[in-house]
Amino acid sequence: MKGTILTYTVLNITPEGFGEPLYLCVVKTKDENLLSYARDKEMLKIGKKVNLQKQGDHYYARPLKFKEYFKKPPE
Question: What is the phi-psi region of residue 31: left when phi exceeds 0, alpha when psi lies from -120 to 50, beta otherwise?
Fold first, then answer.
């Protein structure tokens, strides 16, 4: 699922059970806004297009590959 980063934050003090730092971002998709984890700080930029992957109950944002920028979503 594709989306665009609306905002993000970096938690240096994290809840128990989470490594630090923890990168979180709010991603706007076609249908809704979702809270997502990010793997690294370098990809956190407002307006950046990302691909969301669901793992368990959580979403992870990853950068789009070059060819994914030009793919049209299925209708």
Answer: alpha
- From CA 67, how far away is CA 40, in angstroms rounded? 21
Q: What proportion of the chain, given as a percentage, has pLDDT over 70?
A: 87
Q: Per the structure block, which two tokens stand in for 59?
A: 């979403």
| Complete domains list, the chain, with CATH | 2-68 (2.40.50.840)
The SS3 call for residue 54 is strand
The pTM assigned to this predicted structure is 0.80
Q: How far apart are CA 36 and CA 17, in angstroms?
A: 17
Distances (CA, A) of 13 to 26, 50, 55: 19, 25, 23
